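Cross-check.
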Amino acid sequence: MQWDEGEEEIVTPRPSHIPNHYERSALTKLASGRELQVSKLYPTGRKAIAKLLEKGWIERAGSLYRITEGGKAALRAKV
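Predicted model, tokenized:
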């Protein structure tokens, strides 16, 4: 689509209940049912992991992470 000079494309923010690319990447890896170390969740970084924990989509078990039912629901959410 072409824009007239001075016009900008308006992008609506992603709803918080839909995982972004990095969150979805980690959730997909964890959905296999295995518990993983943070290094195995690449490209998801520590800030995104903290957000996943905050949202309740993953939980920590010692040095490992696992997906929660909320995380599974987030993966199934319509984009």
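Residues 21-76 form a domain with the Arc Repressor Mutant, subunit A fold (CATH 1.10.10.10). The radius of gyration is 16 Å. Passed to J.P. for a second look.
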